[in-house]
Amino acid sequence: MNIRFLDEVFPWSYAYLLESELLKRRVLQVGPQEGAGITVHSTLAADWEGLAQRLGPIGPAQAMSFPFFIKFLAESPLSAMLDHELQSAVVNLDLMGTQHPSPLRPGKIVVLLFLSSRWPQENGGEVFFYSDESRKHIVKATSPSFNRAVVFDGAIPYAVRPPTKAAVYPKLSATFVLEKGPASNDLLDPKGTP
After folding, report:
1. Dihedral pair phi/psi, residue 22, rounded to 5°
2. Which of 56, 63, 86, 94 could form a disulfide linkage to 171, CB 3.0–4.6 angstroms apart?
3. Could you say which DSSP state residue 64 is in?
4. Which H helix or E strand runs over 72?
5. What is the pLDDT of residues 37-46, one digit of tens each?
6. pTM, whole model, 2 decimals?
């Protein structure tokens, strides 16, 4: 089963900046809703060029631009992402809600990037991976730790557990869906382990 977990994807200062800028830009807008489940999905782009236009310059005094995102991505363990065609980039903001299965994406690679710096484990929001579409047997799971990425084959069934009532802040994550290609093994399994 091709599932890869990566911690400390970006330098910490950049990960904090990315989290801050996505929230500050109001890419996602949601008001307080007592007791209601809220999940907001905002499409950032359908390709790398669109992502560049949507993110634009970021950082203090607009000193950091999209090429810096590409630079950090190119220097990260996720560098092989740039060798794939980007089908979509979506930012997710989750508050209390219900667990929902995510769609299967055969022929794709999915990259989940967790960007909530204030996310203790008791807040929930775990991602579960299942042995088959019945979703009865969990084979792997991960918590949404800050600056963690999960890379997996889009044909693997998975679901995201909602944040618990203990969550004071929303869970911020980004989902990238990539077309499979010649560099897919470099992204899914760079060491070639069986």
Report:
1. -65, -40
2. 94
3. B
4. helix 66-74
5. 344 445 555 5
6. 0.79
